[in-house]
Amino acid sequence: MKRAYLFLNGELRGSQNFYQNLLQEKQGDIFCVDGGSRHLQSLGITPKELWGDLDSTSPILRVEWEKQGCQVFQFPIEKDFTDFELLLQSLEQRSYEEWIVIGGLGGDTDHLLSNLYLCIQYPKIQFLSEEESIFLSPSHYLFQNLQGHKVSFIPFSNSILSLSLKGFQYNLSSYHLQQGETLCHGNTIVKEKAEINFEKGILLVVLKNKKLISK
Question: What positions does the domain Thiamin pyrophosphokinase thiamin-binding occupy (predicted)?
Fold first, then answer.
């Protein structure tokens, strides 16, 4: 499976060991969005590409990375898209099956919300930290061997039609979940296999990690 890691300028939640082990065990191409450079620098990693207006990246670090083969895509500060979305637009033209975003949450609230809502347009996005994994669920999704993990389901569309949950502490059967409802906040996986099923809608999953969780 071809995997892309995208480092952003949000919070790097968890230990450096977690991210170093992740990148060693599940290898992929590493992309950096401007201020995410501080995270990669602390991890001692040179990305494949650096994207953005580069107002948050050290010029010295940029030169060092370029010498090591990093491609730089610089844009003006005034533009129609965020640095993050410019990279996502490029990835859409490539054959990556997984887009794992690190450092995508925390920091400024407007950036946090914008990043989450980009999942709607780019459903391959998965936000990952040592604490949690956040992604859009397809209409059928199966969790396996995750008993005891906390999970919440948040409607990102006006409604989730005929939502059924099986294998959780709180199950549902053909429930129409409305945007703004908190009914599906704070559930727990209790069975070896736990399923999500719904007919229509956009459903965000927030899965609390005890260890690295793979989709």
Answer: 138-204
Domain 3-130 has CATH 3.90.190.20: no
Is 133 a residue whose pLDDT tops 80?
yes
DSSP 35: G
Q: How far apart are CA 102 and CA 196, in angstroms?
A: 25
Q: Which two tokens stand for residue 64?
A: 């060092």
Hey, is 205 helix, strand or coil?
strand
Helix, coil or strand: residue 9: coil
Q: Catalogue the E-assigned strands of 17-69.
A: 29-33, 49-52
3-state secondary structure of 120: helix
Cα(33)–Cα(56) distance, integer angstroms: 10
Q: C-alpha 55: how far from its chain's center?
A: 23
In angstroms, the CA 47 to CA 95 distance is 18
Give domain limits for the chain.
3-130, 137-208
Tell me which fold the domain 137-208 belongs to.
Jelly Rolls (2.60.120)
Q: What is the pLDDT of residues 192-215, one digit of tens each?
A: 999 999 999 999 999 998 754 444
